[in-house]
Amino acid sequence: MARTLQEIFLISTKLGLTSFGGPIAHLGYFHEEYVRRRKWIDDASYADLVALCQFLPGPASSQVGIGIGVLRGGVWGGIAAWLGFTLPSALLLALFAYILHLGSFGDAGWIHGLKLVAVAVVAQAVLGMGQKLAVGKMRASIAVLTASVALLWPTAVTQVILILLAGLLGCVLWRDSSQTAPANLHIPISRRFALGCLLLFFAFLLVLPWISRSSGVAWLQLFDSLYRAGSLVYGGGHVVLPLLEREFVPTGLLSSEDFLAGYGAAQAVPGPLFTFASYLGAMVGGPSGAIVATLAIFLPAFLLVIGCLPFWDVLRSHPRAQGALAGINAAVVGILLAALYNPIWTSTILSPADFAMAAILFALLVFWKLPPWVVVVIGATGGWLLSILS
């Protein structure tokens, strides 16, 4: 078992050091490494696992990696796979937070350039997700209505309600969706253990807010904020942005400039975008804050993957579940569209030069297909040049 866990950790660490390009690209890297090269899982089972992780809230690519680790080495295999894939980007972003703490960089040109990168990256995500998840009149309408309501009533509770309503609407509109026969997965987890993980997931979600408010302990409040964000996000890393923004910026824990600078820096590192939480935790509470934040935002992913794997074949055989997912995905596009406008656009695009730079970065990402880390370097350099010329 120890040799298996070591193998899982080393291979996932290699992926964590080289997997640039966001969750969709990560799934491609995983397929190449785990399916084609290692043959740890076949194509049908891999597709089944990806479908499950797309259905669940949380970081889809990280959940797929955790699931493969679980299938290969049980619960400890899932932990090894997550640790290897997550640690490189978490350390880099915590280091970036430390560098920001060394001096006041809020007005630096390169920081503004990172914020312009965030505009381009989120715009690219809205475009790509909209073309896949908001096709047709009904799904597009759900996306637009969701964006409108999210902008008019900008709270984290509003976003959760919108996702739930979209799921219910999807159950009605697409209840007769055609289904394909699910592939069988060998799950080395008992249903009793899985049910315990699901109960623990909901217990944390319901009890943590009460405990954190009544105790007044700073690290508990941080854990609660990040756990809730990791529990309620559909659509991957980019969609966590508005939830985290509501938790950290209006409350005064972090300035809007530092928040968007960290989000821009997160585009330059490989691995999961959810390690943006490592940066937030480090900014708020130093090294211990980074550890607490990282564990908190990924814990729901663990509990949900382990809790749902044994029941997935039964769930996905129901057309209503697929209909709910269609509605939720359309709402996710709307939430991301609202986040593109506020806080990203309103706090970043302040002049024609800003718009021109953001448009260039967007073109480099979408049309020239440059790697995100290259666009980050170009954006930081461009922001620095704009500050000199202005």
From TrEMBL:
It comes from the Bacteria. It holds the Pfam family Chromate_transp. Keywords: Cell membrane, Membrane, Transmembrane, Transmembrane helix. InterPro entries: Chr_Tranpt_l_chain (IPR014047), Chromate_transpt (IPR003370). The keyword S-adenosyl-L-methionine does not apply. The chain crosses the membrane at residues 79-100, 112-130, 150-173, 193-212, 289-312, 324-342, 349-367. Its main location: membrane. GO terms for cellular component: plasma membrane. It is a multi-pass membrane protein. One of its GO terms (molecular function) is chromate transmembrane transporter activity. It is found in: Cell membrane. PANTHER family: CHROMATE ION TRANSPORTER (EUROFUNG). Belongs to the chromate ion transporter (CHR) (TC 2.A.51) family. This is Chromate transporter.
